[in-house]
Amino acid sequence: MPFVRRLSDHVVVSAGYSGQGVALAPLFGKILAETLAGQIARLDVLERLPVPRFIGGTALRYPLLVAGLTYYALRDRL
Questions:
Q1: How far is CA 78 from the centre of its chain?
Q2: How do beta strands 3-8 and 11-15 pair?
Q3: CA 27, CA 77: separation in Å to the nearest integer?
Q4: pLDDT per residue over 33-71, tens digit each?
Q5: Distance between CA atoms of 18 and 16, rounded to whole angstroms?
Q6: Helix (H) / strand (E) containing 13
Q7: Whole-prediction pTM value?
Q8: Cα 9 to Cα 40: distance, rounded to the nearest angstrom
């Protein structure tokens, strides 16, 4: 699920559109555009969606990141 948060009145962060989140990108883009234009306040619903914690915790975050990046870099070369 994509991550959406408002940082200020004119700045909204939206990320995490890999996998299943790609299907939601057009809808989220429309909601973000409406919010920044001051038309409709539907962003509040998206901001309430929970952001899941990383499964490995802080101890495994970096090693798993390196392993994943290495795997996909190798896969791209083959």
A1: 29
A2: antiparallel
A3: 34
A4: 888 888 877 888 888 888 777 777 788 888 988 999 999
A5: 6
A6: strand 11-15
A7: 0.56
A8: 14
Return d(Cα 16, Cα 3) in angstroms, integer.
Answer: 6
Measure the CA–CA gap between 14 and 5, rounded to whole angstroms. 7
Rounded mean pLDDT of the chain?
A: 84
Cα(14)–Cα(40) distance, integer angstroms: 17
Give the Å distances, CA to CA, from 71 to 46, 50, 68, 76. 32, 29, 5, 9
Core vs surface per residue 4-43: b (16+ CB within 10 A) or e: bebeeeeebebeebeeeeeebeeebeebbeebeeeeeeeb
